[in-house]
């Protein structure tokens, strides 16, 4: 079957979340129903999926409280983006950060001296001051800037709850500006509610019904990433159980997962999935030109 891979009309989330679903959106959307009353995402992460789905309203959840705090913050500014932008620009100037979109460029000499790392070299000291200020005052503007200028654009905290990501070799560029403006446009006037709960508690509270679509992109049991640390076999069983309950109540669900990854195989999920529709997804890991090069199998399992 031919697979649509163009992301031309898709919105990039301003979280630039590692492992987001941006590249797979055309394939996922092709498998979603046309009419959706409430679009429900128990693992919304950076939001790349909900930003690209049309529904009457949205119920979005993630266990990461800082991620949800930033979503709520951006949602609140969607009606007054000018205020958002003037505060961002004021902070960039006051910390003396580089910002390509404002024409604040790293000096030529430093760019020549540190060809591959000049953003990090230039912004490091300002970044550390901003990080110390954020840890003292929890200003969400600073948290967003720390993420954008930070290593791999992660949100990472130590066990004392202090933000501890080092500076990244990146800067606030036009791509970030475009993604933020698209986010504001996309959420403006929409009925959107964010939650910060474990997925099961979230589903119990909101009680999905027929007409809704629950899309789930949980951490994958057999791959490795920052948020997978929180996920284990017990979580996977709770997930499967919740999905069966949705099915019993005639609620449509679609769940992403990885069945094989290198030498690892998710037998529990694979056996469970056989009773539903399993759609193969051409994922980031798979070479489009050489089938033998694939070392992961990604699927979307749906009950409709
Ligand atoms: C694969 S990521 C989702 C990425 C998202 N689809 C995107 O495009 O940005 C999985 C998410 O699940 C969240 N998570 C992990 N355990 C959870 C739990 N028990 N309940 C709710 N969310 C959880 C993580 O914080 C992470 O953001």
Task: Please specify the SSE layout and strand pairing.
Blueprint: H1 25-30, E1 38-41, E2 57-61, H2 65-77, H3 81-95, H4 108-113, H5 118-137, H6 140-149, H7 174-187, E3 191-195, H8 199-206, E4 213-216, H9 233-248, E5 252-261, E6 264-265, H10 267-273, E7 277-281, E8 296-302
Parallel strand pairs: 1-2, 1-4, 2-3, 4-5
Antiparallel strand pairs: 5-6, 5-8, 7-8
The chain binds S-adenosylmethionine.
S-adenosylmethionine binds at residues 17, 19-21, 42-43, 45-46, 48-49, 62-64, 198-199, 217-219, 227, 230-231, 235.
Structural account:
It is globular and about 60 Å long. Strands 1, 2, 3, 4, 5, 6, 7 and 8 form an 8-stranded mixed beta sheet that branches. By secondary structure, the protein is an alpha/beta fold. The mean pLDDT is 93. The protein has helices at 25-30, 65-77, 81-95, 108-113, 118-137, 140-149, 174-187, 199-206, 233-248, 267-273; strands spanning 38-41, 57-61, 191-195, 213-216, 252-261, 264-265, 277-281, 296-302. The chain folds into 2 domains: 22-63 and 194-302, Vaccinia Virus protein VP39 (Rossmann fold); 79-180, Orthogonal Bundle (Adenine-specific Methyltransferase, domain 2), CATH 1.10.1020.10. The protein is built from 10 helices and 8 strands. Helix 5 packs antiparallel against helix 6. Residues 17, 19-21, 42-43, 45-46, 48-49, 62-64, 198-199, 217-219, 227, 230-231, 235 line the site of S-adenosylmethionine.
Overview features:
10 helices, alpha/beta, Adenine-specific Methyltransferase, domain 2, 38% helix, eight-stranded mixed sheet, binds S-adenosylmethionine, 304 residues, single chain, 2 domains, Rossmann fold, globular
